[in-house]
Amino acid sequence: MVKISPSLLAADFGNLRAAVQDLQAAGADWLHWDVMDGCFVPNLTFGAPLIKKLRPNSTLPFDVHLMIKNPASKLQWFADAGADIITVHAEACDDLPAVLAQIRKLGCKAGVSLKPATPPEILAQAADWVDLVLIMTVEPGFGGQAFMPAPLDKIGVLRRLFSGRKVEFEVDGGINPQTAKQAIASGADVLVAGTAVFQNGAYEANIRALRGEGK
Questions:
Q1: Four-residue CA torsion sign, 215, 194, 54, 88
Q2: 34 is an active site residue
Q3: % of the chain exceeding 70 in pLDDT
Q4: Is residue 215 part of a domain?
Q5: E strands, the chain, where?
Q6: pLDDT in tens, 9-36
Q7: For 113, which DSSP code?
Q8: Containing domain of residue 92, as a range?
Q9: Choice among 29, 37, 131, 172 that is catalytic
């Protein structure tokens, strides 16, 4: 069954503790933290101190997506904050294999994200270090954008590139019950969703709908 990793970017920032607790109770599999620095992407969100403060409120894996420049210099911060998965952007790394190896050394799963226009072949030299690939189906930086289906084709390309290695594929951007079906059909293992989970406060029903379980 596909995993659902709700993006806290869509939560009420004044009530993040309640959101973290309620999402776990509603059946979320992971919790997704979109960390933006205002440089790599034109938005600024939360950082390691906030994630560390909220870590005791959930036993779910913390899925930390770093949309930042020079991520290698900040990895220790997020590992210390309680991240279970740290995902960096291939476009932000001069030596991607070294960065992924550093993430693993810190005891976290190593993820790499690709913007919509970034070719999947860029990961060829880093294949041995990748635990997760995050396929962006919107331009990173803001929530609520329209879903772009073309990047889903990267999943098939990368499964062949990785030659059967155990790598999870996560899809982020414009995910709702309709686009979730496309992502799952393309081979997604994990779906990141913000608005589609938080709308109307019906977390459990919304998560079930993303899985295609209905009410």
A1: positive
A2: yes
A3: 98
A4: no
A5: 3-6, 31-36, 62-67, 85-89, 109-114, 132-136, 168-172, 190-193
A6: 999 999 999 999 999 999 999 999 999 9
A7: E
A8: 3-210
A9: 172
Catalytic annotation, pick one of 29, 34, 63, 131? 34
Kindly state whether residue 99 falls inside one of the protein's structural domains: yes
Tell me the per-residue pLDDT of 44-103, one tens digit each, with 9 for 90 and over: 999 999 999 999 999 999 999 999 999 999 999 999 999 999 999 999 999 999 999 999
Phi and psi dihedrals of 38, rounded to 5?
75, 0
- The pLDDT of residue 214 is above 90: no
- The answer as to whether 62 is a domain residue is yes
Structure tokens at 73: 């210099």
Give the C-alpha separation, 193 to 29, whole Å. Answer: 12
Amino acid letter, 36: M
Q: Is 29 a catalytic residue?
A: no
Structurally, the chain folds into a number of domains equal to: 1
Inside any domain, residue 148: yes
**Alpha carbon separation from 199 to 11, 55, 60, 107, 120 (Å, rounded):** 10, 24, 21, 34, 32
β pairing state of 85-89 and 31-36: unpaired
Can you read off the two tokens belonging to residue 167? Answer: 């790598």
Which CATH number characterizes residue 125's domain? 3.20.20.70
